[in-house]
Here is the input.
Amino acid sequence: MADVQLFENIDLREAITTWLEHFESSIGEKNIDSAANLFVKDGQWRDLLAFTWHVQTMNGIDEIRDTIRRTIPSIAPKAFTLAKKRTPPRIINRGDIDCIEAFIEFDTNTGPASGVLRLVTDSEGPMGLKAWVLMTSLDEIRGHEEAIGDRRPSGENYSRSFGGNNWLDLRNKARLYEEREPAVLIVGAGQSGLTLAARLGVLGLDTLLIDKHERVGDNWRKRYHSLVLHNEVYINHMPYMPFPPNWPVFIPKDKIANWFESYAEAMELNVWMNTSLVSGSYDETNGHWQIVVKNSDGAERVLRPRHVVFSTGVSAIPVRPNLPGLDNFEGEIIHSGEYLDGHKWAGKKAVVLGTGNSGHDVTQDLHSCGVEVNIIQRSSTHIVSLREAQKVYAHYFEGPPIEDNDLLAVSLPYPVLVKSYQKSTRSMLANDKDLLDGLKSRGFRLNNGGDDSTGFQMSYLRRGGGYCFNVGCSDLIISGEVGLIHFSEIDSFVPQGIRMQDGSIIEADLLVTATGYKNQQDTTRLFLGDKIADRIGKVWGFDEGGELRNMWRRTAQPGLWFMAGGLAQVRIFSKYLALQIKAVEEGIIGAKIACPERAPMADAAD
Here is the structure.
């Protein structure tokens, strides 16, 4: 809890307004040093397109000064003010730092913008305060606003065309792309692809989604029988169509799958299902792609979009491990992504390789179906109860509106994020002590989410996995109802199962490899070739500036973009990716990233 006495006798609105007035006055007078000195020396400024047209963080006063100098002439920011229709300023603790936090708004040559400002005590600043964290976010491009609300289409072009094409005729024709090419091709029609396509659609960009599955939503529908979302409905709403208020807190897979299908129809998205990407190349001269796609009948077509977005997710190409003696195993082998349910294995024996979320869920499902199951642990795992994990999202249903919370979610630069996650992880570990002690007593190896103890959230952002929300499987391990095998104690797979180093045999009819997925750079390499894959580098995990590599922003390859993440992430960042693609299409920015990608962080696991 924040120490309110630090800000005793300070009018919060006056404090924010005074700082903004000094900042605007300094940049208006082109007094760069004066503007930069309104920040503390280790201040952070995260910008999402408003000043830099990048998703990037400026760390420290020198980088902040340089960015102000470079951007002010072209951006011409002005009219800084306290946001009128958002949560009022408050005193709060972020990353163990007490601060005044406020939503702000301002204008630029590009369009209106919003932000979050956090002030801390500093005797040299206005009213004894300086900026510790500033986040700035472009709201929209002036003259190219979203066609929603009072800008929505009238419908007159089909509703009063008696004898002509009606709405359905036009929709059916639009889906075919018989006489035109899409401006944007999105590969993958899961939550990433659907949300981005919806954003692009209201910006007037002709967008086509392709997906190898039979129906929209099959990326969830065809997963294991008992699957439900592991985070709560409050944070998972999709753009323009929030979930109904009577939906369950934890959404079942088939319910979210059916919603995806309805969403695609309601948002008038052009989707080709049963369609796979075959290969692609980029025409540098004409600035478009040549993409070969194939439908389920084997028919191929060449598409020529100007933009290609891989939205195949963090979980794209399964990792299939090379295990000693696996060729000798006579049982069935499947990846967790192919697992549906355990009923056909009732009364039999199974082993599950991997102790992340998928490994635990598959193990628990097999056990519930009457299967004798052992789980194999290869490396230490961060375990957190579902109850504790949800507390980090509590502000989405107890605090400010979702629009405000989305801004708050992107307003914490990497160093602050680390401190915040360390704090929440300490609380989770303390509250889960009995659970964790029980796992340790069974020999289960635990970690705290990396060497810096940042918990499941940072494990996800760095690795795309490496943690587990306990919904019951950990209790089965503790009770001995599920067996635990350490991978280091395995000698080899044999026809009837696993031979341990002590010579004992653990029988198995089924092996499920819950071993994760490859990096999206591998997806790029598979379909677009080594040259482009090597040019862009790794996707996901943090670069040295504290931003996710190649995500939601321009890459080193013109016209190539990446979308991934959970429902909340893609709701938030689809906006920024759509704005960038629109800006490229309108000639506002170039198609290729102007500043080189920063190197990966030393602590970012691949």
